[in-house]
Specification:
218 residues; mainly alpha; 80% helix; 0% strand
């Protein structure tokens, strides 16, 4: 046997002895660690399954409430929406509940729900923005232009997908209080935006035509 082979064999025996000592000393810890990993994975899979079942149950409840609302039974639909306590469908249920309340003339209750959804930082930003816009639409016929501006001003920025609705809300609010100069400014902003939806643009043009004699009389 060459010296190199002898050294290799001795080195292998030393390593085996070291592994044996390590296993004798820490074997139980290693096994316990492996069991813990398996338990954690199993627990996570169980939690995933539980979440899936919760989502399915909440989804079924949500669409059942939507169906009830479609039949015209608003009170029953609202009661159904109020029972849905789920991170995703729960927020959608609140928005639908607020919509039904607004449709039945309960504007203050509707706005309170919209404002609560908008104020909850745990909700997705898109849903919070939707709640803010919906609240402004509910208040569009009664709130002052200043109050409405405080609600929608942040949306009136290039690239914001809600800017068109925000501008139309403000144009209508200023028209309602006969502030024709402010109305005209909003109408011009709507018409100048190349991405303004056709329906919004058409209504803005109609309002622009109505403004011509009113602005000329000033």
């Amino acid at each position: 046997m060459s010296d190199e082979s002898l050294f290799r064999e001795v080195d292998e025996e030393v390593r085996q002895e070291q592994y044996k000592k390590l296993w004798d000393r820490y074997g139980n810890v290693i096994v316990a660690g492996c069991v813990l990993v398996v338990a954690v994975v199993a627990g996570y899979k169980g939690y995933e399954y539980w979440q899936l079942k919760q989502s399915q149950t909440a989804g079924e409840a949500f669409f059942s409430a939507v169906k009830t609302a479609g039949k015209g039974d608003t009170a029953a639909a609202i009661a159904q929406f109020q029972t849905i306590d789920h991170a995703g469908f729960g927020v959608l249920a609140k928005l639908r509940e607020a919509n039904l309340l607004a449709e039945t003339g309960k504007a203050n209750e509707a706005v309170a729900i919209y404002d609560a959804v908008a104020a909850d930082a745990s909700n997705h930003a898109s849903l919070r923005d939707l709640a803010k816009i919906r609240a402004a639409l509910v208040l569009a016929d009664t709130a002052t232009p200043a109050d409405l501006e405080a609600r929608v001003k942040a949306f009136d920025e290039p690239g914001n997908s809600w800017r068109h609705t925000a501008r139309e809300i403000m144009a209508a609010a200023n028209w309602r209080v006969k502030d024709y100069a402010a109305t005209d400014a909003q109408v011009k902003a709507i018409l100048a935006d190349s991405e303004t939806p056709a329906g919004v643009r058409q209504r803005a043009r109609m309002l622009a035509d109505l403004l011509v004699p009113l602005l000329a009389a000033k």
